[in-house]
């Protein structure tokens, strides 16, 4: 269970991105975080692993309070939380296998990490994960020789190498074509179910959020204005999250025929 209580973020320039967020996410749930640009989605997910430092409030993963950990304790706790990025954040000049194994860097000694020495069990697991994400046979390929969809699959395999309890996913499909975006969302959904993994996905694409997640949380100006099952996110509710006028002119994005057109 992930529990956020009174989570508050004020940036150094005084801007309050999150006034006070309360959210509970049970283990195994896949949550889509939606909302207009600037609503605070990235700030919220980054406050969970403290890539952005919350100004006040509580972030608990299971029984562990994350918001007051020392740097060393935080490093340890971050093993439990993996992140997947829109731009994949791979090292281009390294192979697929090296990128996937880098998910274990938090577990090996400093020297071993410098020399990129990993235990055979890790290498074996990396091969298994590459098969799981549909990249069997591509372990020796340089990361920059992959398609966008393949790169995101490497990012997912690297995240899973960490054996995390929580996945934080930042716009995983924003750089992908609609078909590949659906495949990536299906993969994330399957993996969460199989592994009882909790995930929060910051996503702009409402049809994809509706199709592939268990729960949708709508943010507006840093506050939760919708929290419900995908079926409850009716077209009538969307203007409450996105603001009426802008949304009306964007109705084409509401086509839920399954084509994930980025809004
Ligand atoms: N370092 C910062 N200093 C000041 N304000 C910031 C900083 N980072 C973000 N903000 C502001 O906080 C608000 C929330 O930003 P955030 O990136 O979390 O929104 P978002 O919902 O993820 O937007 P998008 O969908 O466009 O990525 C925005 O108004 C943004 O300008």
Task: Throw out a few tags for this protein.
10 helices, disordered C terminus, binds adenosine-5'-triphosphate, six-stranded mixed beta sheet, 10 strands, alpha/beta, 263 residues, Rossmann fold, ABC-type phosphonate transporter activity, single chain, four-stranded antiparallel beta sheet
Global outline: globular
The level 1 CATH classification is Alpha Beta
Instruction: Estimate percent helicity.
Output: 25-40%
- Look at the structure and give the mean pLDDT: 88
> What is the first-to-last residue Cα distance?
30 Å
Q: Helices and strands, in N-to-C order?
A: EEEHEEHEHHHHEHEHEEHH
- Spatially, the strands of the biggest sheet line up as 6-7-8-3-9-10
CATH topology: Rossmann fold
Spell out which ligands are present.
adenosine-5'-triphosphate
The number of helical runs is 10
What is Rg? 19 Å
State the total count of DSSP E strands: 10
The total number of structural domains is: 1
Strand content: 15-25%
Give the second-level CATH assignment, the architecture.
Answer: 3-Layer(aba) Sandwich
What does this molecule look like?
The protein is an alpha/beta fold and 263 residues long. It has one domain (2-257): P-loop containing nucleotide triphosphate hydrolases (Rossmann fold). 33% of the residues lie in helices and 22% in strands. It has a six-stranded mixed beta sheet, sandwiched between helices. It has a four-stranded antiparallel beta sheet with strand order 2-1-4-5. A hairpin with a 5-residue loop joins strand 1 and strand 2 (16-25). Helix 6 (148-161) packs parallel to helix 7. The chain is globular and about 50 Å long. The model is unreliable at 248-263 (pLDDT under 50). It binds adenosine-5'-triphosphate. The site of adenosine-5'-triphosphate has 12 residues, from helix 1.
């Amino acid at each position: 269970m992930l529990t956020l209580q009174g989570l508050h973020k004020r940036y150094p320039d005084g801007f309050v991105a999150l006034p006070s967020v309360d959210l509970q996410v049970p283990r195994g749930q896949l949550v889509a975080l939606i909302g207009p640009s600037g609503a605070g989605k990235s700030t919220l997910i980054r406050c969970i692993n403290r890539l952005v430092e919350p100004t006040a409030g509580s972030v608990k993963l299971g029984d562990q309070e994350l918001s007051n950990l020392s740097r060393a304790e935080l490093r340890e706790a971050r093993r439990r939380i993996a992140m997947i990025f829109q731009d994949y954040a791979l090292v281009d000049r390294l192979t697929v296998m090296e990128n996937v194994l880098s998910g274990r860097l938090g577990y090996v000694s400093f020297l071993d990490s410098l020399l990129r020495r990993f235990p055979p069990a890790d290498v074996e697991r990396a091969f298994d994960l590459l098969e799981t994400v549909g990249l069997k046979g591509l372990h020796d390929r340089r990361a920059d020789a992959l398609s966008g969809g393949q790169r995101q699959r490497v990012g997912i395999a690297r995240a899973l190498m960490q054996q995390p309890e929580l996945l934080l996913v930042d716009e995983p499909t924003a750089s992908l074509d609609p078909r590949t975006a659906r495949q990536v969302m299906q993969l994330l959904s399957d993996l969460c179910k199989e592994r009882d993994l909790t995930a929060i996905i910051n996503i702009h694409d409402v049809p994809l959020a509706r199709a592939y997640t268990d729960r949708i949380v709508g943010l507006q100006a840093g506050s939760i204005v919708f929290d419900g099952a995908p079926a409850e996110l009716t077209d009538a509710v969307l203007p409450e999250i996105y603001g009426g006028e802008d949304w009306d002119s964007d109705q084409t994005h509401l086509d839920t025929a399954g084509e994930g057109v980025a809004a």
